[in-house]
C-alpha cells in the first residue's frame, strides 16, 4: 500500500494539518465577536459564552465545508498554487465572515489607537503593531513619517495633538508628499492588499509543508513504514485528510 494512502488512515498529525488551515483563519474570531457585541442584546454569563461558542462553531464548520471541496496544492514555490490557496482562503473568509489580514491589522490599529491623544504616540503604536505582525518597512516610509512629524512639531513648537485639525492637516500634507515620492497611490491600495494576502498565503503553505514533512518523518520511524518512500507534499490532496 502506498505511503500516502496509509498515512490517510493512520496519521493523526497529517489529518491535523487540514484543520490547521482553518484555525489559521479563525483564530481572530473572538475579537470580532466582542467587536460586534454592541449591536446585540445584552447577554450575561453562560448565554454570552454560549453565543460566542455557537458563532465560532458555525464559522469553523463553514470553513471546513469549503476546504473539503476546494483543491489545495502544498507547493509554496509554485505561484499558481499560492494564488489558488489565497483564492480558497478568500472564499473561506467571505463565506465564514472572517477578517482578512489587512482587516485584522486595521482592527488592531483602531482598537489600540482610539484613545491616543498625540501624533507621536500614535506613530509609535503603529510601529509596534508593524513589528509584532512581522511586517517589514522595505521603503523606509516609517522613518520618513517620523521626520515629517518632527518638522511639523518644530514649526508648531509643541507636540502635535490629534485633535489639532490645522496641525494634523499639515502633517497629512507631508504624508501625501511621502506617498508621492514613494509612488504609493490610494487607488492602488487593493493591489497592495492582494500582494500582502499572497505573501501570507505563501508563508502558510510553507508552514503546512513543514508540518506535513515532519508528520511523515515521524510515521516513517515506525516499523510498518520503514520500507516506504516518502511522498512529495504537493502530491497530497488535503481534501482526503479533512
From TrEMBL:
Coiled-coil positions: 191-228
Domain of life (superkingdom): Eukaryota
Record's keyword annotation contains Coiled coil: yes
Biological processes annotated in GO: pollen development
Keywords, alphabetical: Coiled coil
Name the record gives this protein: ATP synthase 24 kDa subunit, mitochondrial
The organism of origin for this protein: Lithocarpus litseifolius
Amino acid at each position: 500500500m502506498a505511503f500516502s494512502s496509509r498515512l490517510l488512515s493512520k496519521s493523526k498529525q497529517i489529518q491535523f494539518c487540514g484543520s490547521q488551515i482553518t484555525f489559521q483563519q479563525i483564530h481572530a474570531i473572538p475579537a470580532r465577536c466582542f467587536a460586534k457585541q454592541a449591536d446585540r442584546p445584552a447577554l450575561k454569563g453562560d448565554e454570552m459564552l454560549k453565543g460566542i461558542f455557537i458563532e465560532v462553531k458555525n464559522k469553523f464548520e463553514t470553513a471546513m465545508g469549503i476546504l473539503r471541496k476546494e483543491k489545495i496544492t502544498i507547493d509554496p514555490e509554485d505561484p499558481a498554487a499560492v494564488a489558488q490557496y489565497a483564492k480558497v482562503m478568500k472564499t473561506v473568509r467571505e463565506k465564514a465572515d472572517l477578517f482578512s489580514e489587512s482587516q485584522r491589522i486595521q482592527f488592531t490599529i483602531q482598537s489600540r489607537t482610539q484613545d491616543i491623544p498625540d501624533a507621536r504616540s500614535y506613530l509609535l503604536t503603529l510601529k509596534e503593531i508593524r513589528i509584532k505582525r512581522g511586517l517589514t518597512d522595505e521603503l523606509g516610509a516609517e522613518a520618513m513619517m517620523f521626520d515629517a512629524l518632527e518638522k511639523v512639531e518644530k514649526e508648531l513648537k509643541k507636540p502635535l495633538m490629534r485633535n489639532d485639525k490645522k496641525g494634523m492637516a499639515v502633517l497629512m500634507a507631508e504624508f501625501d508628499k511621502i506617498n508621492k515620492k514613494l509612488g504609493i497611490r490610494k487607488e492602488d491600495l487593493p493591489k497592495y492588499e492582494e500582494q500582502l494576502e499572497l505573501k501570507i498565503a505563501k508563508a502558510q503553505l510553507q508552514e503546512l509543508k513543514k508540518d506535513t514533512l515532519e508528520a511523515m518523518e515521524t510515521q516513517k520511524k515506525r516499523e510498518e513504514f520503514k520500507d516506504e518512500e516518502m511522498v512529495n507534499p504537493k502530491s497530497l490532496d488535503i481534501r482526503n485528510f479533512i
